[in-house]
Amino acid sequence: xxxxxxxxxxxxxxxxxxxxxxxxxxxxxxxxxxxxxxxxxxxxxxxxxxxxxxxxxxxxxxxxxxxxxxxxxxxxxxxxxxxxxxxxxxxxxxxxxxxxxxxx
Length: 104
Hints:
The chain has strands at 6-8, 14-17, 24-30, 36-40, 49-55, 64-65, 68-73, 78-83, 93-94, 97-103. By secondary structure, the chain is mainly beta.
């Protein structure tokens, strides 16, 4: 039997099921609108690392570009790296972004 907490509303609809895997944030990094990388600790055994990107810039999001992100898992640590890439031309620029990372 699975252990955990389940909460239902009066109609029987599940509001919370803490017997499933819930994500855990480990930290974040701001890109500063430049390419970069960060070494992060591995997820606990049986868990999977993830990342999510959000823009910090309030400028025109149609011209601003978010970075491509790679998460490489090694034997003792993982590397989160990001790189901006877009066709040259007038008006395009790198958006300052925040990359959140964690595990589930």
